[in-house]
Design brief:
The chain has 17 helices and 16 strands. By secondary structure, it is α+β, with helices and mostly antiparallel strands. Strand 11 and strand 12 (about 505) form a beta hairpin.
Length: about 625
Amino acid sequence: MDEFEIDLSVASSNIGVDSLVFSSSNEQRLSKGYNKNGELGGDFSQEHPPPGFRFGGYLKGFTGITWEPVDNDVVDYEDGDDEENVDADDIMLQIEEDRLLNMVKTGQATADEVAVLRKNNKLLEQLKLEQQLLKHTPKTSLSDRLAIVMRTANLLDGLCRREEALYLLQRHKKLGWGDCELCRGKLLFKMGRYEEAARIVGGVWRRFIDKNSDDGDGDDDGDGDGDGENSEYDSDFEGDETVSRQAAADAFVLSGWIAIHDDNHTLAYQVWIRGWEIMKGDEERLRKQAEKRTCWDVEAEDDESVVRQLGLFGSCAVAVGGVGLVPEIEKFQIAKSKKNKTPALALFDEGQQSELVFRTKMPLMSSEECANVLSIVGEFVENSLGGEWGTVRNSTVRTTDCAVEDIPQLRPWLRQLLKRSIFPLCAIAYPRLADGSAIIDDVTGENRLRVHDAFIVRYSAEDLSFSLPEHSDTSAISLTVSLNDSSEFTGGGTWFEALGGKRGQVVDCNVGNAVAFAGPLRHAGYPISKGVRVILVLFLYVEGFHYGPRIKEFCGAAMGGEMETGEGDAEGSSGEEGDESRKRGSGMEKGGFVVYRQTTELANMLSLEKEHNDSRCCD
């Protein structure tokens, strides 16, 4: 049965898709699109309505959609009558409130659904007020008019009327070109129109460079050669538009995240490093991203001696080039019935043979080394975090973790562990990428793996941080290393949707051992029921390997054919899968989410509230 059973076609205001929880049947209907008459099956959607119309609401069960004509008094924002209809508006608002209350009483909608409708009604009231302000603000008051335009765009965004917001910003961008273009890019990003967003946002920081840099070389890709190779960031400029320093900084940050969402990590870091250089080192968000490359890619001369002194490096480590023994690994294969809906397969050569999950059969670190790492982490939490674990993630369940880069003593340890153990392990597990290249460059012999994120995760049954919801990682390869013995906790491990039968499969390992898997593979932190489990988590990408288009191509091909459901599959059983306790646990249910704090910061930056409150023209 559909989870959302309210007939939205009778609502007087829009309710955004962002606000709703969908069942699978709803998602299937939405994917078919709608025609100009609002019937299922067509080229139009909420974000892309027919010309001259905007989204009005959905019919029950998303079986249809309503389009509303785009009124001139909404699109133009400067024409129309003034306050002569205020009394009539008050009456209509009261009628609407009575209707909403009746919907709850009669069971047509839940209180939460009505709360969304009520919120939208308030947004509509504010929208009318901003419309009146724009009409009566002198055209010579550029900064005031820009602030009104920004607030209006923010309200339209809240009503999921983003096409109108884009039109408004485009029409008034001469009030403040940089601010308006940046907001257009943010809106396009929210709408999933990444290529357009990249072009516009890239244009903002390029204009800033043209106006403020000493060399003025017009370099588009940040490599100093001026060739502008990364054409997705091309932008046309007209007139003498200006960009504030803050808008340029936001544009650099957002450009990088657009590249991350397109699974092009190499480009993202090029943009962030370029931004860090242009901003002269006074932009914290860019500094944090740019310095990751120095932190993890550049080995210090004394790294090995420091690590040995701290007791973090011993006989278990493996070295590149055959110095030491690369541990034997256990392979886990994607179930045949789930291959058609496993986009992670698109990252690798066919020779990978659907083997996307690996577990070491011998430890990368001894128990003593792991204990020493935990001791350093404990000191950091006590001395720097006041004894309370923080988090780099936001989730539907409680999570506790800390970034390795924030703990100076662990930086040389991880650099050595990567070089001697983890990078060779990944090169063996994933010998050939989909583009024919390898993790270890065939010509130079250099390692191409890079760290995007590294953090220590703590699962505790006591403080209820015992699991992590189902999700995918922003990485080509992810890897976990267990830092404490399995006797110290009950449960745990990483659950993979594509392994085993219809309930998936949990893969765990003992202290010092590692589990590596393709980042886009759906997985979850399986709940522990007792004790504390601590792991090292790494998100890795391959330098120069842009895999986003391959994921999209795979998904498009899979949607064009019959998608396997995996129901009744009995392959790849680990012996654990038949246990009822191995079903989806707390935090693994559909609808759970994991958002890393960097992504939350991005979402906050995407809000137009900042421009709403602090818009101005810049000299």
